[in-house]
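Narrative summary of target 7.
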Amino acid sequence: SSASSFLKIIQFKNTHKNFITFHRNGLLTVFKSQTELKYAVTQEILPKHCSSQVITLAQNPISDKELFLVYSEIGPVLYDVDKEKIVNSCFNFPVTVTAIDCSENYYAVGTTNGCIVIFKFGTFDLSTVHRYQVCNSSIEFVGISQPINKIFFKSHDSIGEIRLDSRKVIIYNSRALPPKRCISTSLGAFIVQRDTHILGIYINGKEMPALLPSDIIDIAVKDAVSGPSSGELGVLLASKEIIFIRYNETDGVKILSSKFSIKAPVSPIALCFSDKQLLLAFDSGNILIHDFETKKTKNASATVNNVKTMRICGEAIFGLCGSGNTLFWSNGEDFK
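Modeled conformation, tokenized:
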């Protein structure tokens, strides 16, 4: 037996030819029968990277093929009895997820200890999980741009990118003004708000400034056409104006002459737009919907307060409101 004392023994319902013992130091010992009363050790499994105690465990009541364990250092794990190994674990134990984004094939999360962890959809294979220590502070933003093999990120005082093809972490040069918030698109656009009225728009890796005439309330990027070398965005200002910006490698950053002004005695708080529509949420709970093709504008009573963000998905509108934990949906007429 191991130098560590036994914690528990697991016997299986469908077979008595093997059993597993758990030791207080986290070791799993697999015994298999050689004769009716003689058992031999066939496998000893210790959790990787640490000496960790088993706090508790549970058997699957309908199957002998897996066990659920909780370790003191690495948290909950799934043990595959047939493969005789741990096949899945809680990646973020004991830290908290602070940012998340997804693409068609992957999702990425940022944590309080400065890690970004990348997972592949539809698999529990730990070999597909990649972890990057990008800083020592909490991650506030992650954005996957799979066509250019990059993940953008932001912490309290730094921004950068993970290059998925080479698995390198690149920290961008620091500026006099630290980043306040970041926005990215799936095609590779990356925009940083530097001050109350200053944006930094990255064009092929180079940050180009945009000085705005009023404080920024919200930013909306046209996802379908915005990438690393060109794109369009709208900016909602405290002056109740929406200005439009176009950027490309030839002309740099250009603020367009067209504006959208709000004359009503209410305060706009959130902006979203696509090729077809512009959405504007107000502190009164109403949402203004403007159609670029017909040039018609209508008001929709959303009966939701304090809208945080909105997204257009096909013909539907999704958004977060309240303290950020209430999701609403609309088809432009009804809100749920």
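The mean pLDDT is 82.
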